């Protein structure tokens, strides 16, 4: 498929209007001078044969580029399009709109050297009869035709690739019957049915009850099952013991036997069964002791 594009290139020209009056030319020059902080002055002697008798000149202490930028920023809406140049931008020109028509504005270096830039303002050439800028400054619009061709590109979609069929007996997994174990599943190792026995706390493993109070000889005798348990354990640890059972009363014989046990097991000899003595008494590591001599 082909498309033909037409591109029109039009040269910018000032619109047709009546010729500005000398007063309007001067007003345009004053306006330019106020925008660039310039000085309205006589034109150089070399300009005697240039333009009309109504021409005005403005001197500015700025470069040509600086003056152009300032005018574009301040009176750009009244300028006729872009700035133009015929000498590699040593000078540039444009048209400035006034109530009576367009005036010609050219910027160039001051030939007299009194200022850095000279602004030349005048009625455009041939404006008296046509009311437009000079024909040489506004060339006839021309139309150029460019032919461009665009080719339609068709992108073919690739055919989907089918996966290759598995080959060999190993490619097909063996069927698994319902209810049977998977061929890759490994039987769980048999668990030891005998639970491991944690290390027993010596005091808890031999004491028939927890420690709840300090046992000692008092004026009013203490009794209870904890005293009986302590007496039975003391009988077990007594060397050459004749056996027997405790009566559950904490008397002088029990206190003397406790002192003998404490001395044999490196405990403070107090005759009282506190928590430390209770723990050592029911420990599997408890040492035996000789029966005390009781008067």
Automatic annotation (TrEMBL):
Peptidoglycan binding-like domain mapped to chain residues: 223-281
Pfam families in UniProt: PG_binding_1 (PF01471)
Feature: compositional bias, Low complexity: 123-141, 162-176
Entries under Gene3D superfamilies matching the protein: PGBD-like superfamily/PGBD
Ranges of compositional bias, category Polar residues: 193-204
First and last residue of the signal peptide: 1-18
Region spans: Disordered: 122-205
InterPro entries registered for this protein in UniProt: Peptidoglycan-bd-like, PGBD-like_sf, PGBDSf
Keywords, sorted A to Z: Signal
Protein name as annotated: Peptidoglycan binding-like domain-containing protein
